[in-house]
Design goal:
The complex is a heterodimer of chains A (120) and B (110). Chain A has 120 residues and is mostly beta strands. Helix content of chain A is 0%, strand content 51%. Chain A is built from no helices and eleven strands. In chain A, strands 2, 4, 5, 6, 9, 10 and 11 form a seven-stranded mixed beta sheet that branches. In chain A, strands 1-3-8-7 form a four-stranded antiparallel beta sheet, with no helix packed on it. In chain A, β9 and β10 form a beta hairpin. Chain B is an all-beta fold and 110 residues long. In chain B, β3 and β4 form a beta hairpin. Chain B is globular. Classes of the chains: A mainly beta (120), B mainly beta (110). At the A-B interface, loops of A face β7 and β8 of B.
Chain lengths: 120, 110
């Protein structure tokens, strides 16, 4: 099973862009057998699916975030990334990267998560 | 898309069975055999416990079982143990080719 590790700034100012990277090890990010996913969890609240990307670059996004979200993949670095624009305090959350096997509908592999706080 | 509805908390004594419900619509839970359940201990990442309504991944105790009726899925934990105390969330694929999670349920072992 691949291992996933999130990285990025823990503090972002309001109206700026949140940028996170998920590094994939123990497997290939362009193996064609995974969808690479971002999920977040505000403090004390439930999980929220942000979106995912295949190794060929096909993406799907949560409609509530779609206009602000970009998910991309860098196969040369074995990484995929999340950019969330125009952040507010409501975007403060633990951000997880995860994988979903192609053809499956569950998230069986997760990173440990990284807390991002939006504050001036 | 609205979060799936789960009870905020469920509790039980060691050895008892508890059931957590997860209610959606015909566009998500009711429309697909794609409900999964996750266990999350404080400060940890979620762990897949049930997939495709009622299947257990390798290594997950058979004390955990899942089912679905109409727009409501359920997770049952039998023989409740102290280590089962955690937050549990359901998830479903949707007709919009997206995923929606439940609001989460805190399980307390009395």
């Amino acid at each position: 099973q691949v291992q996933l590790q999130e990285s990025g700034p823990g503090l972002v100012k309001p109206s700026e862009t949140l940028s996170l990277t998920c590094s994939v090890s123990g497997g290939s990010v362009n193996s064609g057998i995974y969808y690479w996913t971002w999920i977040r969890q505000p403090p004390g609240k439930g999980l929220e699916w942000i979106g995912d990307i295949s190794d060929s670059g096909n993406t799907n996004h949560n409609p509530s975030l779609k206009s602000r979200v970009t998910i991309s993949i860098d196969t040369s670095k074995s990484q995929f990334s999340l950019k969330l624009r125009s952040v507010t305090a409501a975007d403060t959350a633990m951000y997880f990267c995860a994988s979903r096997d192609f053809g499956e509908f569950n998230f069986d592999n997760w990173g440990q998560g990284t807390l991002v706080t939006v504050s001036s | 898309q609205s979060a799936l509805t789960q009870p905020a908390s469920v509790s039980g004594s060691p050895g008892q069975s508890i059931t957590i419900s997860c209610t959606g619509t015909s566009s998500d839970v009711g429309g697909y055999h794609s409900v999964s359940w996750y266990q999350q201990h404080p400060g940890k990442a979620p762990k897949l416990m049930i997939f495709d309504v009622s299947n257990r991944p390798s290594g997950v105790s058979n004390r955990f079982s899942g089912s679905k009726s109409g727009n409501t899925a359920s997770l049952t934990i039998s023989g409740l143990q102290a280590e089962d105390e955690a937050d549990y969330s359901c998830s479903s694929y949707t007709s919009s080719n997206t995923y929606v999670f439940g609001s989460g349920t805190k399980v307390t072992v009395l």
